[in-house]
Amino acid sequence: MRLGEIITAGLLALLSLYFMYEASLNGFGYTRGSGPQGGFWPFWLSVGMLVSTGFVALNWFRGTSPASQSDEPVLDAFGRKTLFLVGGGIIGFVVLVDIVSMYGAVALFMLYYTKVLGGHSWWVTAPLVLVFPLMLFFFFEGLMQITMPTGMSFTDPVYDILYNIIY
Questions:
Q1: Which of 16, 121, 133, 135 has CB atoms 3.0–4.6 Å from 103's, for a disulfide?
Q2: How far apart are CA 57 and CA 65, in angstroms?
Q3: Which H helix or E strand runs over 12?
Q4: For 1, which DSSP code?
């Protein structure tokens, strides 16, 4: 785990530097009278991430965290299985976005995560699968007016009904 901790911290530090660079292309300052520039929040959140990885590296160097004192492997058999199942679900989610829409992919991911991986009852799963994507739809499409991918044409009848509610 010791090696895994410092490698993960290093990769996250590099990722945060990349995010800071990308955010800085949109400006990360605060303009009086008009507010934050486009990259303000991503830049400063990435700075926070970089500082956090610095503390992880410091604890690793000093040997104060449990992971920095352990010679066990980062992932045991259960950890590899969990990584495969969760990572596979996320990859499936990304693939499904262009097929069943962003909100359909969210519903299917929630179904997979709560029912299949979590083993929850239908009384817990069904409301999450039905209500959460609808809340996201009305938040992004209605309130924020940000259009998400609508998938293939077979999803159009559902979107026609939902857009009629908003407009």
A1: 133
A2: 10
A3: helix 2-24
A4: -
